[in-house]
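Quick start: what a row looks like.
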Amino acid sequence: MLTPVMFNNGMQVRHRARPEWGVGSVTRAETITRPNGRDQRLWIKFANAGLKTLLASVADLEIIEGNAAAEHTFAARENASDGGWLGQISSKKPEAAMAELHPDITDPFLTQERRLKLLLGLYRFEGGLGSSASAGSGLAGGSGAGLIDWAVAQSGLDDPLSRFTRVELEAFFKDWARERDTELHRLINDFRRRRVPYESILIDAPRGAMRMLQKFDKAR
């Protein structure tokens, strides 16, 4: 079933599967007719990825109302606090915030299938790391999105290196990857315990996710 026509020029959106692209502005929206209904072809200019042409029915787009950025990001929390991220209102340290997974992944009101898809998408962040960081996270490195792409998506900062050093980002990534791997293990075990098939969800999973699942199986 195709998405209803809902996007207009000037709308601010975020691609849930590619948060590292940053906030995008719809520059053109064209209604098209497909065999199973109406759809939209969208031209969106993203802050960190430039102009992209997407189908509304395929792209997982979140409309950003007013100043509502992704509240889980470092930047959004800092902006919401009068004293900044390290102010009195926010008690979490940067390393704790940078290790958090997106709240949708642990949202009990979302289906486990949806949460697994979101979680698998996080395994695209595996390139651009040094050998020690890759080894610590169980990733091989050398492919997929890099460390800075991950840092942009996780922090909400256009230039994470303006706030953190690369060494700090690598340390944050290792903690975040550990949380991601732990949640994947938990979700997969729950699918298996309930004897619910999940193999079809793995068809397009990044190689890093498949390597981690193989590691789980060897440890059983």
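That is the whole record. Residues 81-90, 128-144 have pLDDT under 50 and may be disordered. Strands lie at 12-15, 24-34, 37-46, 50-55, 61-63.
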